[in-house]
Amino acid sequence: MIDRLETSFRQIRQFSSDASHELRTPLTVMKGETELALRRPRETDDYKVVLESNLEEIDRMTRIVDELLFLSRADMGEVKMEHLPVPLDTLVEDLHRQASLLGQERDIQVVLRTTAPAVVLGDELRLRELFLNLLDNAVKYSHPGGTVDIALTIEQTHARVSVTDHGIGIAQEDQSRIFDRFYRTDDARAHTKKGTGLGLSICAWIVESHRGRIEVQSKVGEGSTFTVMLPLAPPHRLNNF
Ligand SMILES: Nc1ncnc2c1ncn2[C@@H]1O[C@H](COP(=O)(O)OP(=O)(O)OP(=O)(O)O)[C@@H](O)[C@H]1O
Ligand SMILES: [Mg+2]
Predict the structure, then answer these.
(1) I need a labelling partner for 172 at 20 to 30 A (CA). Which of 16, 27, 188, 238 fits?
(2) pLDDT: which is higher, 5 or 53
(3) Count of CB atoms situated within 10 Å of the CB of 81
């Protein structure tokens, strides 16, 4: 019991320190740039550059705070979830179009390999957010010129959606930690500054609240596959659908 309390206090301390650090970085950038701009009179265009950069940092902080608020509301059971039939095949086709646009910016081709008619019970907006987070990661952690594959298949009572990339990969010892809030691997940090390490914690929560499972298979330098298993809607819920 004491051990468990110790662990949970340690996790809270770690979380507060990570959260403060993530918010401190954009604040430091804004403070530095603003002080520099104020040191002597400047042209209007110079002020514009500083204000634009500040706006970027404000957007970044707003995203972090929104995501943290979402996660803490989720922890307290305050997030409302729909429980309606969602046709996953239509959703996946739509996400494929969206992810292809994301990919274009980095010269990455997003391919829908297989799809199958599948209906699950859940919240379409949250499911969209879940798969977009996975696709965003796959594109972000790929190398330019690479491909990202999406596949939707049926396995007895479950729908299986997988997102595969051929990017930087994740070491075995990191694979259980990437779902922790704010956890980013050193490889990911070296690859891109973009990211706070909250996306997968939100994915894990969405999957859990759909009574599903999420798994990762990965090798450093070769790529990663994230697989989501979601229970299919029972046939009686499909009447009138
Ligand atoms: N497809 C992937 N390839 C390699 N590493 C990945 C992949 N997806 C996730 N990771 C690792 O898991 C970490 C956590 O992912 P997560 O989506 O939570 O954070 P992020 O993408 O860094 O930031 P955010 O999603 O909050 O913008 C990443 O920082 C990275 O280290
Ligand atoms: Mg992410």
Answers:
(1) 16
(2) 53
(3) 13
